[in-house]
Specification:
alpha/beta; about 270 residues; globular; Restriction Endonuclease; Shedu protein SduA C-terminal domain-containing protein; SduA_C; 2 domains; two-stranded antiparallel ribbon; 11 helices
Length: about 270
């Protein structure tokens, strides 16, 4: 489940440790003072070696490094390439390849913008197995003031119309995703704790797994299905957006189109957190 092909962030080189320790020492404004004054300092998290930013997280190889959001030109160019891909009539496998093979994970992580967690820690798991039958395209895990929450994401066809009958009904491209997500939800409501081994494998060595990953609390779980383009919604916006609102209210499943990912990704550029 490692997101990064060239790195294992559970291991840190001696050179990075030495650099990290120097930066940590420089954070203290009054290093020779005692009491409260001696503890005053400035956080220099963004100056830490990248390996330490990952290593200090709960899931080092699944951590979404917020410092990457400062690469504004690079992100903007990637979004442009993504838009060109969307305009070339791709299927969902093309989208998965673009994100996974190029490690353009911020595109999926942008979905955090729809929620109020992820700003205190953001993680992504790709092709996450729930059991031998179910596999999630992406699982986002975000920490907020209320603890950790989970977003289970299903990608459907980006180029086919997710609506039928002039936009008044869901077509198979949304319906298949919704049915898939409902199957996940039924399974997780009964056996969420069975995911514990996967999370234990991904977490940092000797780090305890928080209770949010063990206790079966359905209010911490969210579901997203992505299909189609904005133009499909605009064919009959009164109906299509009403269907989206109804589905989110009735089944707690958020329906997005791929242009939403473009818009949300642009909102991340230069931000301090997800």
């Amino acid at each position: 489940m490692n997101l990064y092909k060239k790195h294992n962030y559970k291991n840190v080189t001696e050179e990075d440790w030495l650099e990290y320790e120097k930066i940590r020492e420089s954070e203290y404004i009054f290093p020779t003072s005692t009491g409260i004054k001696g503890k005053l300092g400035k956080n220099k998290f963004r100056n830490y070696p990248k390996s330490l930013r990952h290593y200090n997280s709960l899931f080092p190889n699944n951590y979404l490094d917020i410092s990457e959001l400062q690469k504004e030109i690079e992100i903007y160019q990637t979004i442009e390439y993504f838009e060109k891909l969307l305009n070339s009539s791709p299927n969902e496998q093309h989208i998965l390849n673009f994100i996974n093979k190029n490690e353009n994970y911020f595109i999926i992580a942008s979905i955090f913008k729809h929620y109020n967690f992820g700003h205190q820690g953001a993680y992504l798991f790709k092709e996450f197995p729930l059991n031998t039958q179910y596999r999630v395209d992406y699982l986002l895990v975000g920490k907020g003031s209320g603890g950790y929450e989970f977003i289970f994401i299903e990608l459907e066809h980006p180029s086919k119309n997710p609506f039928k009958n002039n936009g008044t009904e869901l077509s198979q491209y949304y319906q298949n995703g919704i049915n898939q997500v409902k199957s996940w939800e039924r399974f997780l409501n009964q056996q969420f704790s069975s995911l514990k081994p996967q999370f234990n494998e991904a977490k940092k060595n000797n780090e305890p797994l928080p209770a949010d990953f063990i206790n079966n609390d359905g209010t911490r779980r969210h579901y997203v299905v992505i299909s189609g383009r904005r133009e499909h919604y605009e064919q009959n916006s009164d109906y299509s957006y009403a269907i989206r609102r109804y589905e989110e209210k009735s089944s707690q499943i958020k329906l997005l189109h791929y242009d939403n990912l473009v818009d949300l990704s642009k909102e991340l550029i230069g931000k301090n957190t997800y």
